[in-house]
Amino acid sequence: SKIGLPFLLADLSKVFHRQCLFHLPQISSQDWVGALVCGERLSNPLLYKLLIDTSLVHLLVISVGHLQMLSWALEQTNRFQKLPAWGRNGLTLFRWLSLFVFALISGFHPPVFRALIAEILRALNLHFRFGWNLFVITTTSGLLALAYQPAWLFSLSLYLPWICCLGFCIIAFRRDTRHRHRESIRDLLITATLIQILLIIPLGEFRWAGVIANAFLMPLFGLFLFPISALTYLFRFFGPVCDFFFWCFEQLLRYVLD
Length: 258
Description:
Radius of gyration: 19 Å
Structural class: mainly alpha
Number of helices: 13
Number of strands: 0
Distance between the termini: 53 Å
Order of helices and strands: HHHHHHHHHHHHH
């Protein structure tokens, strides 16, 4: 029989994941919301191919970016400084429970587990002031994920977002510059190119469209499309706004390829 923490979490995750899919809003962009909130694979093969061709398929893998966005939103509760200690501790507990439940909902797959470990390491680093940089946290989270489940050594879903996060480490080393705006644009292009080069192994070829898409559309995806998906899942009246945003995103992807 299958016993142990990995199997227990996998079984629990299946229950949460099914409930998430059952309560998906009935909108045109349901496929996107299901992918970003519940961790479900896109059922539309044309959309999936569009993401493959623009090297943005890694965005569908729920990973550290999604958890960081959720964590940031939940961290805003820390502004309630006038609360007593038990109240602040309760909000902190609620934040971590929310992240854990989101990880369960999205399948608790290798990238989700690694992302959760990365968030824990980030919190420990801030609290105890270890001085770890982004590269150390990203690398360690992946190694701990492999230590937890060695079979993930052959998991492409683990490596795709892990590679992309390592690519973003370039930005962390280049923050203290005089020409901040110019440097940030250059770093964005360098990082997008690096990500595209690293993705040659799993995707099989270098795509300049992937460089452009990762440089300019990936931030749009993280800053707008994931939050609007989460809001639409919780509050159905955001449905038309969600449909409009994803329709625009699909047109941008096609424009990049053309």
